């Protein structure tokens, strides 16, 4: 995970601001070209850019609101607000972008769309939009690549385990935008070559399906984070190894982690301490171990340690029910890491 929490003024904010500015400018250009030409694909692309612009507004809201400090009503902070607003961003891509594109495409294919004319303006707008979208896409790609390299992970593994949905959302929507522009270009070009509006409508339908798929991927990511996904497996392994190596601990009986926000991990563990420890020794050990974990793992922000006997049958049954066969290999693997 990253060494420092992402701040609202950090690179994620730069990525979102750049993407939002680009999408707003492109949306205006596409809308003008779509109205002039009557192209369903161009109007679908305009709706696509409007949806992306609204998405950036939601992502900026996520960055700002999730950075608020903990208070009495939210003692663990507001980190999960980033996941909530990012989920709304995914919904907006589907609702305002995908649905409109599908409607335009189906209407055009069925012959119910507006009369269309081929205009060189459409090609110019698509070319300019591709260059602008490419700039935003390169910024988001650079951020993800840099972050994945910092964590010594492959690009795709980092995207799968990322706990900050902001750069992933921008990267995915910009990638979809570039593909959508190529689809629109193909649809308009085939319409011009064949004289059939079906190609324009088909391109619009393809854009709608593309946006629906991207919305699904982003929605699935944020759903898992909102529900309470466990921490990065590397952190889980490290926490368990650190606890197991403590001389006062005879066995780590249970270990649970949860992402509370970007770079915020909650650790709850049940351990069997050496029975020779007194109450004061036990208290000092818990405080020391919690401090060591938060210092060693920058993402760990809260640690709760509960002393338990490892032979308790109810506790053992609970661990088995949660982790299944992995619990049988407890001393060799981290629960839930696979």
UniProtKB/TrEMBL annotation:
GO cellular component: membrane
PANTHER family in alphabetical order: HUEL-CATION TRANSPORTER, PROTON-COUPLED ZINC ANTIPORTER SLC30A9, MITOCHONDRIAL
SUPFAM superfamilies xref list: Cation efflux protein cytoplasmic domain-like, Cation efflux protein transmembrane domain-like
InterPro entries: Cation_efflux, Cation_efflux_CTD_sf, Cation_efflux_TM, Cation_efflux_TMD_sf, SLC30A9
GO molecular function: monoatomic cation transmembrane transporter activity
Membrane-spanning ranges: 12-36, 83-103, 123-141, 170-190, 202-219
Superkingdom classification of source: Bacteria
Biological process (GO), any one: zinc ion transport
Record key words, sorted: Membrane, Transmembrane, Transmembrane helix, Transport
Subcellular location: Membrane
Membrane topology field: Multi-pass membrane protein
Annotated ranges, domain Cation efflux protein transmembrane: 17-226
Family annotation (Gene3D superfamilies): Cation efflux protein transmembrane domain
Pfam families referenced in this protein's UniProt entry, alphabetically: Cation_efflux
Name used for this protein in its record: Cation diffusion facilitator family transporter
Keyword Flavoprotein in record: no
